[in-house]
Amino acid sequence: MILPRDFYARRDTRAVARALLGKVLVHLDGGVRRAARIVETEAYHGPRDQASHARFGPTRRAAVMFGPPGVAYVYLIYGLSHCMNVVTGEEGHPAAVLLRAGEPLEGCLHSTRGPGNLCRALAIRRETENGLDLTGPPLFLEDAPRPREPIVAAPRVNVGYAGEWAGKPWRFLLGGNPWVSRPAPR
């Protein structure tokens, strides 16, 4: 079953980030099904979050974050890697969950550890998937059983510039899963 829009429309982005763990990200790429089980996420919540792209307002890059929930926000980082977020919350309030890593299930082209690798593995690109509605093909998330692994909260990755926001435990991962991008701090 494809996740409905109300799954993403919750006010607390952290709740969506936790709930996405164990769900299956699917990209129907030219007739090929590419899929990975989500094992790591990060929440970015609102314009005050200094780690969020939305901190500068609805720029050309971040405008999708201000739109309706249940939409893909795909951007290019360091000019090299595509990263995918799912927009959450209410329209007009910029919030999104970065999909940091997945466990490969079907048709993966590359390692799925890390957000850039996950997009590369599922052939997700900014030029073609940014702004897509996630409630139907070609890009969507499927419901799945609750994960057996424990959910671990940790600080987000590579946001040291964000001051006090850098230390917020808004990274969520499945403890002990070998596909997370890096181990959680002890």
Automatic annotation (TrEMBL):
A Pfam entry, by short name: Pur_DNA_glyco
Please state what class of enzyme this protein is: hydrolase
| The UniProt record lists the keyword Cytoplasm | no
In which domain of life is the source organism classified?
Answer: Bacteria
Q: What is its EC number?
A: 3.2.2.-
Coiled-coil portions: none
Protein's UniProt keywords contain DNA repair: yes
Q: Which UniProt keywords apply?
A: DNA damage, DNA repair, Hydrolase
| NCBIfam families reported for this sequence | 3mg
Q: Record's PANTHER family?
A: DNA-3-METHYLADENINE GLYCOSYLASE (PTHR10429:SF0)
Family that this chain belongs to: Belongs to the DNA glycosylase MPG family.
Its protein name is Putative 3-methyladenine DNA glycosylase
- Organism (species): Anaeromyxobacter paludicola
